[in-house]
């Protein structure tokens, strides 16, 4: 184990989630080749307090050409990114011939709105299949990793960016030094970098330990992002709490002295200090809650099965790999996971080897109980599955508590 990826300080492990498979590698049932496993441990830096994974999984193993996730599978996220793009167009991209770059553009859901408005743009994502989907939507995108070298190429070809944006991406990237150096190259002097990622405070409050998996290398807070920005000549000038994906924060960074700082920044940092969010005891308490949650969830599923209930997982999400493997949940407790993503159907969930299938065409073929693995989309799912509830179906949840309802 090396030191902190931000400052080089000593790391202290506070949560061990055991051996895990890559969260987005779904296995062909006929494939008997050796599987890649890694040890999922979460640590905090003694110096800068950044929460991060102890070990880094090579990026090529996670973000490859066949990366299966697509942003456009959720109507709620489509709406979120449409609003985000509209806001950027009205507030940041107001000059002559503005240029925006999105890091981790996926299938171009956010950029499609700006493309339709004629805004000059570029999406950058290493997943060639997702980039191909973005291009089919009329989005200008390239298959590449964003770092200092690629930022220099973009600047040379397209000029400086008024705005660089990333959603659920920056927390994936251990080498933030190269990211910030790339931003320094690419951004106009008065440009901004806006990114949104899962918030440490919400993860601790909800006990949502499944927000921790191979792709989520960091769990950010306003305190640690402000420190990170300052190390590279930037300043955290705004923060905004977001309700998506189980609780996120949108951070806005600008070069020091180029933008006023919103009072929201000091307010959130003060709140984090009041609640001792980064304290060793707070993180130890979180780890104890995670262990308790595991025991309760396994006991609940075991009891439901013993009573003769049929159970299926709802949503073969990346985060579900952490839950299923840490809790030791396999086909004996949850025989199938239903998911709408064609690229996952017919395959086996990472590590647990639970079969992933398309949802039954007839709701009458639904199980007695659904284990809600896609809990961060609960509002959207509940609105869709009213017939399941009306027929007496029950939901098993583990965030914010283990419950059956």
Short descriptors:
2 domains, 6-stranded mixed sheet, 7-stranded mixed sheet, 13 helices, Rossmann fold, about 35% helix, alpha/beta, about 400 residues, single chain
Fold blueprint:
Blueprint: E1 11-21, E2 37-45, E3 51-53, H1 59-62, H2 75-91, E4 99-103, H3 109-116, E5 120-125, H4 128-136, E6 141-143, H5 148-158, E7 161-167, H6 176-186, E8 187-198, H7 200-206, E9 218-219, H8 222-231, E10 234-242, E11 248-255, H9 263-274, H10 280-306, E12 311-314, H11 318-327, E13 337-338, E14 356-357, E15 369-372, H12 378-384, H13 386-390, E16 394-397, E17 403-404
Helix pairs in contact: 2-3, 5-6
| Parts with pLDDT < 50 across at least 5 consecutive residues | none
Helix amount: 25-40%
* Spatial ordering of strands, largest sheet: 6-5-4-7-8-11-10
CATH superfamily of the largest domain: Vaccinia Virus protein VP39
Strand content: 15-25%
What Rg, in angstroms, do the CA atoms define? 21 Å
Number of domains: 2
| General form | globular
Q: What's the mean pLDDT score?
A: 95
Give the terminus-to-terminus CA distance.
43 Å
SSE string: EEEHHEHEHEHEHEHEHEEHHEHEEEHHEE
Report the strand count: 17
What's the CATH topology name of the largest domain? Rossmann fold
User: Which architecture name of the largest domain does CATH use?
Assistant: 3-Layer(aba) Sandwich
Question: Structural class of the helix and strand makeup?
Answer: alpha/beta
Number of helices, where a helix is a run of at least 4 consecutive DSSP H or I residues? 13
Describe the structure.
The protein is built from 13 helices and 17 strands. The chain is an alpha/beta fold and 405 residues long. It folds into two domains: 71-280, Vaccinia Virus protein VP39 (Rossmann fold), CATH 3.40.50.150; 298-404, 3-Layer(aba) Sandwich (Rossmann fold), CATH 3.40.50.720. Strands 6-5-4-7-8-11-10 form a seven-stranded mixed sheet, with helices on both faces. The model has no long low-confidence stretch (mean pLDDT 95).
């Amino acid at each position: 184990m090396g030191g902190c990826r931000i400052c080089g300080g000593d790391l202290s492990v506070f949560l061990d989630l055991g051996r895990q498979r890559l969260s987005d590698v779904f296995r062909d049932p006929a494939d008997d080749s050796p599987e890649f496993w890694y040890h999922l441990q979460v640590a905090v830096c003694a110096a800068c307090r950044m929460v991060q994974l102890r070990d880094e999984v090579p990026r090529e193993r996670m973000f490859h050409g066949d990366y299966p996730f697509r942003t456009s599978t959720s109507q709620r996220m489509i709406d979120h990114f449409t609003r985000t793009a509209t806001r950027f167009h009205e507030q940041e991209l107001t000059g002559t011939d503005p240029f925006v770059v999105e890091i981790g553009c996926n299938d171009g859901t956010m950029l499609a709105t700006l493309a339709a408005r004629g805004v000059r743009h570029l999406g950058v994502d290493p997943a060639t299949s997702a980039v191909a989907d973005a291009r089919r939507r009329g989005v200008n995108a390239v298959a590449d990793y964003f770092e200092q070298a690629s930022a220099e190429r973009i600047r040379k070809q397209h000029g400086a960016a008024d705005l660089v944006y990333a959603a659920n991406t920056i927390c994936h990237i251990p080498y933030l030094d190269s990211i910030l150096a790339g931003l320094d190259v690419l951004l106009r002097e008065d440009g901004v970098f806006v990114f949104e990622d899962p918030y440490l405070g919400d993860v601790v409050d909800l006990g949502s330990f499944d927000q921790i998996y191979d792709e989520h290398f960091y769990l950010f807070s306003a305190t640690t992002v402000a420190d990170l920005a300052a190390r590279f000549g930037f300043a955290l000038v705004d923060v905004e709490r977001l309700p998506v994906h189980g609780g996120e924060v949108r951070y806005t960074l600008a070069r020091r002295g180029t933008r006023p700082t919103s009072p929201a920044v000091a307010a959130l940092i003060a709140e984090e200090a009041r609640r001792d969010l980064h304290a060793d005891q707070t993180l130890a308490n979180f780890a104890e809650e995670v262990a308790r949650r595991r025991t309760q969830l396994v006991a609940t599923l075991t009891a439901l099965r013993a009573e003769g209930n049929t159970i299926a997982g709802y949503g073969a999400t990346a985060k579900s790999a952490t839950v299923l493997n840490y809790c030791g949940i396999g086909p004996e407790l949850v025989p199938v996971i239903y998911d709408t993503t064609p690229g996952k159907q017919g395959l086996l969930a990472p590590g647990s080897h639970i079969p992933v299938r398309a949802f039954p065409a007839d709701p009458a073929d639904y199980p007695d109980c659904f284990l809600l693995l896609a809990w961060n989309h609960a509002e959207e799912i509940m609105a869709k599955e009213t017939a399941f509830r009306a027929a007496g179906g029950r939901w098993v949840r583990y965030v914010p508590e283990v419950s059956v309802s």
